[in-house]
Each structure stands twice: as structure tokens, then as C-alpha cells.
Amino acid sequence: MAAMEALADKIPVEHERLVVGLSGGVDSSVAAARLAAAGHDVQGIFMRNWEPAPGEPCPAEQDYADARAVARALELPLSAVDFIADYRERVFARFLAEYEAGRTPNPDILCNTEIKFGTFLEHARARGAEAVATGHYARRRHRDGHWQLLRAVDANKDQTYFLHGLDQDQLAAARFPLGELTKDEVRAEAERLGLSTAHKRDSTGICFIGEQDFRAFLSRYLATEPGPMVTPEGDRVGEHQGLAFYTLGQRQGLGLGGVRGYPDRPWFVVGKAPGENALIVAQGGDHPWLMSRELIASGLHWIAGEPPELPRHCTVRTRYRQPDRPATIDANGDRLTVHFDEPERAVTPGQAVVLYDGEVCLGGATIDTTDAPGIAVGAPSGANA
Fold first, then answer.
1. Rounded Cα distance, 58 and 37, in Å
2. 336 vs 367: CA distance, rounded Å
């Protein structure tokens, strides 16, 4: 345990009773190791949040086995807790509703606000814990009477985009032991400690559900109907398999090869017309229908609990892996308006727009519409049968 003793010197915090969400991945493994090395009273919980249908893969079985191995190596108590009903009601039902409405939701954001720092936090407090810890790449600090959510040191792994919905109570009770580390440092630390998760591949896919054949998975829960693929000018060029399977800016999976009368160039999704069950496609990744100068979002959440002085110039992200974009923001109640300094590509309804002031995440909202024709106008006129 010499390596763990060395870790203790790097985390000069007062001792607490903590519950760590051990997911079976390397990040939560090292988060637990660092907190235990610092002398905290740490117990692990593995969250069961999804019960797969017959024939669906069940990554949770292997993840739980990996979490048990880590808990044994660190000599930490571990228990599995069932949050399946909460997940279905508070995350998955809303996930499906967004797809039914023709939008593209981000379940990871709901997972954090509703489950990891909602149901899980409530459960941890009922066990007498002072706080919960996770393997998220983020930081926090207390300044001017408020908790602030800060970007992680590792800009490539920073997860504040997914955490922007946390409130002051949730952030006060959150611990992010990896916020000052890079991913390479986390893996190296896991290897030094002899943890079996040191080289485990990062999880991908839908939050708590994992990798799926997306179309097959959605088809189990949503009634989808094929319909026309049409150009902005109204020409029918193909057939889609269901609007829920496509997102703005998508290139792969359209099934459009050589279309008579059009050059041999890639096709992209540039809009949806739910009223006509039409998918609008065009050639060119920078097609005008993909570009937005302004968006309107709802469900605006300020991490500080109150808005800053508005309007203001800041930076925003409309997707997770995206450089910050400068923009001017303003708000009216829970409605947010964002005006980009330069046109932004593929701003997608259902996704989050997250706001930043330097390293501080201010909050965010869910994108409803933009001034791009394929979103604001919808169906092209005079579609050819």
C-alpha cells in the first residue's frame, strides 16, 4: 500500500465520510483510491440503473465484477443499489420523449442531475455520508458565497458540459478527486496501485445502458415510420428509416449513393420536418441550412442559483467535444437567447448549450430552435413525390 500512502500527501483535505460511485471503470477506481489514501471514511456503491430486455447486452455484469475487484484491492466496503425505477422514470422516459418529438437528447446530463447527484446523493445521505464522489473530470471551489463548477485540468476530458445542471446543494456535496489530473496520470496511478481497471477501455454509448445497435435499440421502445428524404428545394432523393435515427449534421448511414442529377458529393442531414415525416438532406458539410447565428433554449439553469449581469459576452458549447465559441447571451426567465459571433454548424434541438466564463461553468439550457432554415422553418415547400 506504499503507493496509496504516497497519494495521501497530494490531497490535503479534511477527513469526511464519503460514498464513492464505483462504476467498474478506471476513473472511479482511482477516485476511490485517492480518497481512501487521504484518510477519508470511504464506502463504495455500484449503481444498477438499467435492466436490459431479453437479447440486449448487459455490460453491468462485467462492470460490477470489476468494481468488486477494485473494492477488494483497496479494502473498501462495496454494495450494489438498485435505481432502475428512478432511471426509467427520471431519465429514460424523457430520453424517449425527446426522440419522439424529433429532437436529439443528451441522457448523460440527466443522469448526473437526476441519478448520480440526485437519487444517489439522497441514498448516500441516508447512509450518513457527508458527500458523494465520482470519477468525473471537473473541479469546484467556493467563492463569493457560491460554489463554482470549474473546468478540469485535462481539457480533453473535461466533463463540466455534462455537469452544468448541478445546483448549489448538489455541488456542495460533490467531490471530484480527478479534477487536477490528466487521463494519462489517472491510468498511470491505477497501474501503480495494481488496479485491474488500469487499462480498461472507457465506457461509451447511452448513459448506464452502454453500447447498442442504436436503431435496433430505439425501435424496441419507439414506433418509427419510414419517410421521404428531400432536399431544401423539395426534390425527393431517398427514404429514411425513421426521423429519430438521424441528427443534424449527420453524414454516415444515410444510404445515399449516386443520386441522378446531383454531383458525387457527400450528403448531410440539414433539417427535419416532423409534420411531413420528412428528413431534409443536402450536399456539403457547410451547407447554409447547417449554419446558425442564433439559438433559443429553455430550462435555463444557473449554477450559482441566480443569473449574472445580462446581456453578457461569454463562450458557449453546443456539443461536448467542441471548442468554445464566443457569443452574447441574454435571458428572460428560463428562456435563453444565444447570438454567436460567427455562424455555428449543426446546432441541434434537444442538445445542451453550456455557458462559460473562462474556467467557470455558469450553467446551461436545452436548445429548442435556431435561425437555421431546417430548424426554424422545418418542412421544405413543394416536396416532390
1. 32
2. 9
The mean pLDDT of 210-216, rounded to a whole number, is 68
Q: List the binding residues.
A: 21-28, 47, 135
Numbers of helices and strands, H then E, in the chain? 12, 17
6 three-class SS: helix
pTM, full prediction: 0.89
In a domain, 210, yes or no: no
Return the bridge partners of 269, or none. 281
Question: What is residue 71's predicted lDDT score, i.e. its pLDDT?
Answer: 97
Tell me how far the alpha carbon of residue 238 is from its chain's centroid. 32
Residue 207 Cα distances to 1, 100, 109, 212, 228, angstroms: 33, 19, 9, 11, 31
> Can you read off the three cell numbers belonging to residue 202?
472507457
Neighbours of 276 (CB within 10 A): 15
Both 175 and 276 in one domain: the answer is: no
Interatomic CA distance for residues 73 and 33, integer angstroms: 9
Annotated binding site for ATP: 21-28, 47, 135
Whether residues 135 and 102 share a domain: the answer is yes
CA angle 333, 334, 339 (to 5 degrees): 95
Q: Backbone dihedral region of 90: left (phi > 0), alpha (psi from -120 to 50 degrees) or beta?
A: alpha
Could you identify the residue written with the cell 411531413?
Answer: 276
**DSSP-assigned letter for residue 129:** -
79-109 pLDDT tens trace: 999 999 999 999 999 999 998 888 899 889 9
How many independent structural domains does the chain possess?
3
Which positions are annotated as active-site residues? 111, 207
CA distance 279 to 242: 9
For range 48-55, the mean pLDDT: 77
Spatial separation of the C-alpha atoms in residues 60 and 74, rounded to whole Å: 21
Judgement on whether residues 228 and 316 belong to the same structural domain of the protein: no
